[in-house]
Amino acid sequence: MGTGMRFNGCPSKNELASAPGVPSLEDLNRKPLAVIECIEPIPCNPCEHACPFQAITVGDPITNCPVLDPEKCTGCGTCIACCPGLAIFVIDMNFTAATALVTMPYELYPLPQEGAEIDCLGRGGNTVAKGRIHTVKTSEKFDKTALVSIELSKEFAMDVRNIRMC
Ligand code: SF4
Ligand code: SF4
């Protein structure tokens, strides 16, 4: 069986590499950035309006995939909770010398506890690594979506997109 959205509902490495919302590894190594894993031509654009720094462009037609401007993105995370597809993450590749911080949308209850050890899952739900919950942020602005930041070994930062509590 092939890989990619059409086959298993998860974007493949090749699809992500050509997505205009996914910054290069070079840019990610420079500073924390949004990673927008939105690769299908769907009519959607709240991310474009949520970014206070105009770092995301969907434009016209609304089915364009979002484009991230890495120079304008501050890694603030404001766009994460606005995405109905749960497709936006913020990655700090250099959180420490050995670890990265991956911030993701989380809509399950109970919310994880800060400091908890957790299983870090790939896009298909497979266990990829162990990690630690660094912060859990909730806000009226985020509606019912929490922002969960996970500290994990930096080699897994581009693979981990969900968690399972141990
Ligand atoms: S992380 Fe902040 S600055 Fe970057 S695209 Fe999202 S809202 Fe804009
Ligand atoms: S809000 Fe999410 S699903 Fe909609 S265009 Fe932006 S990234 Fe894609």
Notes on the structure:
- By secondary structure, the protein is α+β, with helices and mostly antiparallel strands.
- The protein has one domain (8-165).
- The protein has 4 helices and 9 strands, in the order αααβαββββββββ.
- The chain has helices spanning 5-8, 13-17, 25-30, 46-50; strands spanning 33-36, 56-57, 67-68, 88-92, 99-106, 117-121, 127-137, 146-153, 162-165.
- The chain has a 7-stranded antiparallel beta sheet.
- The longest helix has 6 residues, at 25-30.
- The protein is globular, with a radius of gyration of 15 Å.
- The mean pLDDT is 96.
- Bound molecules: iron/sulfur cluster (2 copies).
- One iron/sulfur cluster binds at residues 34, 51, 53, 55-56, 73-79, 90.
Report how far apart the termini are: 31 Å
What does the main sheet amount to? 7 strands, antiparallel
Count of beta strands: 9
How much of the sequence lies in strands comes to 25-35%
The total number of structural domains is 1
